[in-house]
Amino acid sequence: MSFQGPKEELLGLLPLSGQTREEDIANAVQKCLEDNGIDINKIVSIATDGAR
């Protein structure tokens, strides 16, 4: 983290086809983090649009 504080960026947009169960979304997010070399244990929060 820089002296300017935390930085907010968009990591990616993930297309989901077919079912979009909670498990499907969690798996897609986990794969995106892994593909970008981000340790999930360092994630503080993830925002969604609240869709169900």
Your description of this structure?
- The protein has 1 helix and no strands.
- 27% of the residues lie in helices and 0% in strands.
- The protein starts with 21 loop residues before the first helix and ends in a 17-residue tail after the last helix.
- This is DUF4371 domain-containing protein.
- It comes from Araneus ventricosus (Orbweaver spider).
| Residues in β-strands, percent | under 5%
Give the SSE order as H and E letters. Answer: H
Q: What structural class should be given to the helix and strand makeup?
A: mainly alpha
Shape: elongated
User: Any low-confidence stretches, pLDDT <50, length ≥5?
Assistant: none
What oligomeric state do these chains adopt?
Answer: single chain
Average of per-residue pLDDT values: 82
- Number of E-type strands: 0
Instruction: Estimate percent helicity.
Output: 25-40%
Q: What is the radius of gyration computed over CA atoms, rounded to a whole number of angstroms?
A: 13 Å
**End-to-end distance:** 33 Å
How many helices does DSSP assign? 1
Main sheet attributes: strand count, strand direction, barrel closure:
none
Organism: Araneus ventricosus
Protein name: DUF4371 domain-containing protein
Observed structural traits:
52 residues; mainly alpha; 1 helix; 27% helix; elongated; DUF4371 domain-containing protein
Brief characterization of the structure:
The chain has about 50 residues and is mainly α. It has one helix at about 20-35.
